[in-house]
Design goal:
The protein has helices at 36-52, 70-76, 79-85, 87-96, 100-125, 138-148, 181-189, 215-223, 244-252, 268-276, 292-298, 308-317, 332-340, 350-362, 366-378, 383-392, 396-411; strands at residues 2-3, 17-18, 26-30, 57-61, 129-132, 154-157, 175-178, 197-199, 231-235, 259-263, 283-286, 301-305, 321-325, 344-346. It starts with a strand and ends with a helix. Helix 9 (244-252) links the parallel strand 9 (231-235) and strand 10. Helix 1 packs across helix 16 (383-392). The protein has 17 helices and 14 strands. It folds into two domains: 9-203 and 382-411, Rossmann fold; 215-378, 3-Layer(aba) Sandwich (Rossmann fold). 47% of the residues lie in helices and 14% in strands. It is an alpha/beta fold and 412 residues long.
Length: 412
């Protein structure tokens, strides 16, 4: 069953400017479209900011790819090509630039161009708060804030779970939000003061939540698949990288007692290729969608790469994971986190993937139920709201109002 990406789905391109209110605080949110994770975090955080402060004006700015200097855009645009065709090369590149000398060289080479673009945006928007969700933007954002001529708070929201790039640890940030204790320790080891680091979880779309009674069946009906058949959601990130074709063939080529939803991301060529195949197992093929929360709630198992966003989304939904790959570098320890937490398995070969699914289903749901319970125990589905609140409290006027409110409550 072939379905192209829905109209209105989120794809690469210029980031939106979102401004529902005119009287609230002005916020500049820095991200980059290098993979789907940073954009997903930006979307989740924006929605949460509007939930906490409905009058907030939030503008997105991509100083690396979308609206960055031409030289920087050309370099950063190589990212999806590298992760599709040369993952080991990315691992080597990541580790080589995760040393202080190499990172300093990177900042010296590309930093001035990005800083100038940021200074122009800061002077045009004059925001009350700057939030970054990308490791290569944090230090240059602090430089740009100083150069723009007005002091304003800077918050960094870390979107990696365990292993952090040096770029996340900016001692000049007023707040660094981390998702796990491991991430907190990594930031502290790199010289950030403890009072500036808060563990609040990874911001994910607030629509990621456990399915309500009867909701799985309803969502499956909308997809045109059986209501009572175990359902596998297979994806490989926003760029559609990895071995999704071989994985889907292993799970669906012959008849099996499950059904498959395959999400190909921006990889339209892969979507068309999968759509032409005739599977023995019922299979829905989708492109880049904005309905992942609904698809996750329709599933019994989520299968994909070890990206932090996918892991956090599955945990928030209470869906066990089977991880099939990881991006060498920042995603390497995520596999251990999932397996040791008892919320999923790792299967890096198509045959091993099929065997992992069979193992979970052969227990008549008991192992799936246990994993789902563990996922619920460690999930932080409301993390985006907590992160938004912490960031907004950096704005002096809100901080003063919050202190006055606390004092008033204490006097009662």
């Amino acid at each position: 069953m072939d379905r192209p990406a829905r109209r209105g789905s989120t794809g690469a391109g210029t980031a939106p400017e979102i401004a529902p209110g005119a009287a609230g605080p002005s916020i500049l949110l820095l991200f980059s479209d290098t993979g789907g994770g940073h954009r997903a975090a930006a979307r989740a955080l924006t929605a949460a900011l509007h939930e906490v402060e409905p009058q907030a004006r939030v503008e997105w700015f991509d100083p690396l790819l979308g609206q960055g200097p031409p030289t920087v855009r050309r370099i950063v645009s190589l990212y999806p090509i590298v992760i599709k065709r040369a993952r080991p090369a990315w691992g080597a590149l990541y580790h080589s630039f995760n040393t202080r000398p190499a990172f300093a060289m990177l900042r010296t080479t590309l930093g001035p161009q990005v800083r100038r673009a940021l200074v122009r945006r800061l002077r045009r928007l004059d925001p009350d708060l700057v939030i970054s969700v990308h490791p290569l933007v944090n230090h240059v954002a602090a430089d740009a804030i100083r150069a723009a001529g007005r002091r304003r708070p800077l918050a960094t929201v870390v979107t990696d779970l365990i292993d952090l790039h040096l770029g996340w640890a900016n001692p000049r940030a007023d707040l660094i939000v981390v998702p796990t204790l491991d991430a907190r320790e990594a930031v502290l080891r790199r010289g950030v003061r403890a009072e500036r680091v808060r563990r609040l979880g990874l911001p994910v779309d607030l629509r990621f939540r456990p399915a309500a009674p009867g909701e799985k069946a309803h969502l499956r009906r909308e997809l045109g698949i059986a209501e009572d058949t175990p359902t596998l959601l297979v994806s490989s990130g926003g760029e559609g990288a990895g071995n999704l074709l071989r994985q889907v063939r292993a799970l669906a080529w012959r008849r099996h007692p499950w059904q498959v939803i395959a999400v190909c991301g921006r990889n339209e060529r892969l979507r068309r290729r999968l759509a032409r195949l005739r599977f023995g197992t019922p299979t829905v093929v989708l492109g880049f969608v904005d309905s992942m929360p609904e698809l996750m709630r329709a599933a019994d198992v989520a299968i994909g790469k070890a990206g932090p966003g996918v892991i956090a989304e599955a945990l928030a939904t209470g869906v066990p994971l089977i991880l099939t790959s990881y991006l060498p570098g920042q995603e390497t320890p995520n596999v251990r986190f999932v397996v040791e937490s008892g919320v999923g398995l790792y299967a890096d070969k198509p045959d091993a993937l099929r065997e992992a699914v069979e193992r979970l289903l052969d227990t008549h749901g008991s192992e799936l139920d246990l994993m789902a319970k563990r996922a619920a125990d460690i999930a932080r589905p409301g993390a985006a709201l907590d992160v938004a609140q912490a960031c907004l409290e950096l704005i002096p006027a809100r901080r003063s109002a919050g202190a006055q409110s606390a004092a008033s409550q204490a006097r009662r």
